[in-house]
């Protein structure tokens, strides 16, 4: 996703924070005091006025402020509540508020402090590891998860989250081992699908066992992911008729599921059926005209058909939508070399 330029964001931030309040119906800024005197906060504000040492009241008003996006005011209430009566629940809510405000560094510092204050709280330790991972501090995050699991080997959530970290580090084998351990302890659906996806990419038939188990519990027949993963498994193992059947089912369930069109197109591409492949990739672009893969694969088809101009246009379009699309750049360079 593309972001605004730094100066524009900075200007917006300065303006927003300088006003220090919300808009009323007339578009004018409302002071913090007036916000707290209005509904739905007025009742709690009156109660706090009568009992300003009641941490529960500040906590309740903070939760309500968070629901309505008044994060700065919520943080003030949480800090007051904490001064009166510190609790793990308040601390967790404060961390959430910091993250909602985009203050990841403050949240990380808070979590480090909380793990020391509440050494038996596994949730704080796990959230600290999560924030380290999100901040790109993979080694520190991994060390945190290993410490948690050394203390509690049955913590299935930490096994799962550690596996996601290992996937980020491209250590698929280690991730697979940890996912399997998490699933043995607590066979959650999300773990089953994550495992099945890896199995499908590795052409492991256990992908079918897990996806079929998930589908059997889907009484409403609304879950696309297990059906799609089955399609990936069949495609990777060369059973194209079965794969197409799964991808068609996905499209029937949700015609906007663009990945199914792409996977169908890739099958036809592999079979050298460029007309049908191109049709599927165009359908994917019709569903979402900002989907870079749809244009990249159209480029591949046009390149195979010898239509260099169209191929180059689609490679360029794919790159314009995703500046990290290395294959699109390589495709465009191939065409340019052929034209020279």
TrEMBL record:
The keyword Repeat applies. Pfam families: TPR_16, TPR_19, TPR_2. InterPro entries: TPR-like_helical_dom_sf, TPR_2, TPR_rpt, Ycf3. TPR repeats lie at residues 55-88, 122-155, 258-291, 292-325. SMART domains: TPR. Residues 1-18 form the signal peptide. Keywords: Repeat, Signal, TPR repeat. It comes from the Bacteria. This is Tetratricopeptide repeat protein. It comes from Flavihumibacter solisilvae.
